[in-house]
Every structure is written in C-alpha cells, then in structure tokens.
Amino acid sequence: MLFHSYEINNMITYSKSNLSEIVVTYVKNKILTGELKSGDRLVETDMSEELQISRAPIREALRELHMRGFLSFSPKKGSQILNLDMGDIAEIFSIRIPLEMQVLTIIFEKKLLNEKDLEYLSALNQEMIMLGKDNTSDEKEKNFVFNSCDLAFHEFFWKKSESFRRADILQNQYFQLLTAMNKDTSTLGSAKEKYEEHKNIIEACRSGSLEQALSAFQIHMDSYLNAVQML
Hints:
The protein is mostly helical. It folds into 2 domains: about 15-80, Winged helix-like DNA-binding domain superfamily/Winged helix DNA-binding domain (Arc Repressor Mutant, subunit A), CATH 1.10.10.10; about 85-230, GntR ligand-binding domain-like (Four Helix Bundle (Hemerythrin (Met), subunit A), Up-down Bundle), CATH 1.20.120.530. Helix content is about 65%, strand content about 5%. It has helices at about 20-35, 45-50, 55-65, 85-110, 115-130, 140-160, 165-180, 190-205, 210-230; strands at about 70-75, 80. Strands 1-2 form a two-stranded antiparallel sheet. Helix 5 packs antiparallel against helix 8 and helix 6 runs antiparallel to helix 7 (about 165-180). It is globular. The two termini are about 35 Å apart. Mean pLDDT is about 90; it is low at about 5-15. It comes from Lacrimispora xylanolytica. This is GntR family transcriptional regulator. Keywords: DNA-binding, Transcription, Transcription regulation. InterPro entries: GntR_C, TF_FadR/GntR_C, Tscrpt_reg_HTH_GntR, WH-like_DNA-bd_sf, WH_DNA-bd_sf.
C-alpha cells in the first residue's frame, strides 16, 4: 500500500528544530481523518498534552496555519478552523479550478508526463477503490487513506508542472475545502465515484489530448461543487 495506517500521537521522531512542523502535520492529519471541521477549536493545552511538547512550538505552528488560511482567531474563541459558508466554498472553487487547469496545460505544453507517471497515478487510484473492500479499518483510517490518496493524486500534477507558487496555493485551498466538506462527508463522494473520475483523468492524459484532460478534470470538480451546493 502507498498509504499505511495513520498514527497521530507518534507520527514523527522529532527534534527541537521541527516541533512546529509536527504540529502543522498533526493538524493536517486531523483534517484528513475528518476529525477537524470548519469552526472546530484548537486548544493549545490539549495539543500540548497529546503531542507531549511545550506550547511554544504549538503557538508558532498556529501562526503559520493562520497565515496559510487554515485558521481564524478571536479573543473569545482562540484559534479555530476557518468557518466556511457556501460563498467561501464557491470562491475557493473559483480559484482552484482555473489554477489546476493552468497546471494541466503547462504539463501538456511541456510534455512532462510519461507512462511511469500514469502508472503511479493508477496505483494511487487503485488504493482508493480498495477502501470499498476493506472491512478491517475504522472510519478515521478510511477517511485518512481516501483523502490522502486524493490529495496525492492532485498534488502530483501540481508538483509535476514545476509551478511551485501554484502548488502552494492549491494545497492550502485543498485543505480549506476539506475542512468544509468534513461537516458532511457525503460531499466527498464514494471511493468508486472518485476512482472512476480519476481514471477518466488518467485515460485522458494517456490519450495526449489536453482538451479531454481538461474536460475530465472539470467533470471531477463539478461533482464536488454540485454535492456541496445540495447541502
């Protein structure tokens, strides 16, 4: 498997220099498992106890997450996951979709994809569909694998394009959307649905047709947007 069982409490053997990054990863993993949703509070004392680290690197990590647009802060509520309404979600999609289409266009124009890349994407996609046959994992672990595979699928294109500024923006947008969708995980779709949508993107890439690839990607994004609008 490309993604093994997640471990939140002991995820990294760490040194003092990377404590704040551990906290960032901790928060991201909680989002990937579906445990953190829009509006949820992040309590420094709870995080300090769970991660067994001091509060200083936690504060540093929370500042970074705030700068990335993951968190909001108020004197009464402290740090909390950004609470997104339908207008916010629509705006994020209006940013994400054009950027991802630009990424695909760059990849096709520079002919950056090869068969090995497509095999890797197919392997990620296969892991996603295997979730439907897994009766041993709990819901948090299934969410983690599902969302990690989906993130890795999209992240591959972002990084392949070598457009690092777009990649940074897109990753932040991805996690912001996921916190909103975690309020009702039906918006994420089933493993089978995402498998088919990803498969169509892979096949379009294999065909060498940018037009087909953009169309397959648009259909994939529309399925998320339509699901969210129905809530």
